[in-house]
Design a protein that fits this description.
The complex is a heterotrimer of chains A (111), B (415) and C (268). Chain A is built from 3 helices and 5 strands; from the N terminus they run E-E-H-E-H-E-H-E. The radius of gyration of chain A is 13 Å and the shape is globular. In chain A, helix 1 runs parallel beside helix 2. Chain A has a 5-stranded mixed sheet with strand order 1-2-3-4-5, with helices on one face. By secondary structure, chain B is an alpha+beta fold. Chain B is 38% helix and 28% strand. Chain B is built from 12 helices and 17 strands. In chain B, helix 8 crosses helix 9. Chain C is α/β, with parallel strands linked by helices. Helix content of chain C is 40%, strand content 16%. In chain C, 52% of the residues are buried. The chains are: A alpha/beta (111), B alpha+beta (415), C alpha/beta (268). Chains A and B meet through helix 2 of A and loops of B.
Amino acid sequence: MKPLTIVSSRTPAGPLLEVAGDLDHSNAHQLRKAAVGAVVSSGLMLVMDLGELGFCDSSGITALIAVRNHVVAAGAGLILVAVPEALRRLLHLTGLDQVFDLRDSHSLQTN
Amino acid sequence: MNPGAADDPGAKTPGARPAFSSLLEDSAEDLYESAPCGYLSTLMDGTIAKINATLLGWLGLSREDVVGRKRFSDLLTVGGRLYHETHFAPLLRMQGHLGGVALEMRTAAGPRLPVLVTSTLKRGPDGEPLLIRTTVFDATDRRSYEQELLRARRAADDAREQAEADRAQLREALAVLQRSLLPDTLPDLPGVETAGYYHTASAMELGGDFYDLFPLDDTRTAFFLGDVCGKGPQAAALTSLTRYTLRAAMIQDADPVDDLRILNRALMERYTDDDPRYCTAVAGVFERVGDTLTVRLASGGHPPALVLRTDGTAEYLSTRGGMLVGVLATAQFVEVRTVLRPGDTLLLYTDGLTEARVGPGRDLYGYDALRSFAAARAPAGSRALVDALTALLRDFGDGLDDDTALLAIGVPATP
Amino acid sequence: MSILRRNNVRVTGATTGRPVVLVHGFGCDQNMWRLVEPLLAEDHPLVLFDYVGAGRSDLSAWQEDRYSSLDGYARDLVEVCEELDLRDAVVVGHSVSSMTGVLAAAAAPGRIGALVMVCPSPRYIDEDGYRGGFSAEDIDELLESLESNYLGWSAAMAPVIMGNPDRPELGEELTNSFCATDPDIARVFARTTFLSDSRKDLETVTVPTLILECEQDVIAPREVGAYVHAAVRGSELVTLDAVGHCPQLSAPEATASAIRAFLSSGVR
């Protein structure tokens, strides 16, 4: 079990959260808190870089959905960047690839 | 310290201080009599030959009452006397020394005096035992401390027993609740063989998988199987809501996509945005037409159903694009249709099966392995298939750490 | 587990002659006989053992139901006699083991040919005109006394009993603590000893019997010695000039010579 770390910063397009480690029921609330803390305003994009994300179970999915709901309610958007293969498969299987904006790398965010 | 070596003995040596000199004047006799512990010497038969004032004071006895008249064991309570005869005296004889024995003495005033007794044997020049020297410490405080410890230990034992009983009761209650989320038995349907199985990962935690199967009318039967997010009581509540919502919806409307939409709306209404609760589910209806079953099923984010054909093949029924139920108001659900002929079997399962960890690398069991497993057994009746998968789950051992539900629906091969 | 290991059986003394089995009572173990042993060893093969639960016996063989009645202890004695194939042996039982000897002699006729009872009492509690010397409350008090000593005194011994090597300084002293017994086992033995009633069994004795009592013994007073003497047909009673309940320790010579005199008087 790798501890979860979330590094928050800002880019011209909006806030960036770099999420690393394992995401499960014991720490999923941290992700929600970080998203709420990364103030997003209408028209901006919250970018979550999941390149270093390890294990992610259904509580992790729940947290991602909650983050999305929060961002959408604020009139902003959510982009998931560098989603690991296992999570990508899970998102496809559950139809959530239609809900989340999945992109390969950071560079796209500035487009 | 050597007082003679000091330059100014009057000022620096302790011997010059009044307190120290009075200590030097303290006679051995006075020390014996008024020591802060009891002293006692007895002959080998226990007769008391010498006793100090401290002990006499504790016992409320006069020297004349005791010396030459009483034995050591006479000073003890009856229980203490028995203990003395069976343990203390023999040990002292054999070892020549015995320390820290807890006994109780009888005082003239009535109350008992808890004491700790240490004895040594004094021997003559030829090694013959001559007399027994005994020191007695007042152990009143210590004894009450010990009794407090004993009481605490008994209380802890009782609490542990109670906790174990509560735990057993809780386990029983959880098992009853868990069973209430599943059908007791699957209905007997002419020309259809069905089988279900539920694996519980933990007896102390309610699982979040569910399935059901019930006739709608003479020819049509509804079924569903799914997995709610999370575990424990909240997951069980969600399971209950899901199961009964789906059941009511399917009785009302035999279109599986509509039924999943109704469930989606119910979950969205019940749970808020920042506490999303969702499930994956497959819901379907099959209809008997001649000796075949025509099946319509819809999936919301659930792993694809598997069909075992009578020709020995196994294939997934893709429902890709169907979305988790309870996440999005505009969620899409995908329907797929198939026909089961004699010897064909449809398998629904939850991801506990495909996500079990296997082999030395703890790899996911996965969809390919499941299809190969099924193809190797096809054609297989529902019961035989579920039994084979149950054995597989057992073989996973601790690689299987999630609840797993199985539901198979098949048309028996024509004889 | 062989009986010999289970009961920590030790065979010593002469290689020929009438075998004498020395049986310890409640409290300690076969070491109780260490002062008498050399005095009998010249003329008799000697058998010593620890009851299961006592001394260095195999504690894992202890079962509460078996050792909650004197029959269980008598079975230990009989099994030791059988294992060594003893015939016509003299069983010298201390205290409660006098009664164990009575039960064993009835159970294994031929193996046990004579009994020596050292400070026997068939019943410790007074009742219906019989004076055993104690009330039921007294026995409760002993059990309490045991309990407090297992908490205080024996708490220090527990690591040794358990074979805890962390406190070697205790080990040195306590390896000599023959009375160290698992508290639960001791409680069962104490209850069995002090609450049983063997008065009826005394009438079954058919072998020659010597009763040794002490001048002053709070556990088995002379009144009780007289009762046993009257109840066991043809028994011989010897009062030793000793105080206490353990003449084999306080008066080993007198104890040994009384036993030798009894055995050389041609009892068969």
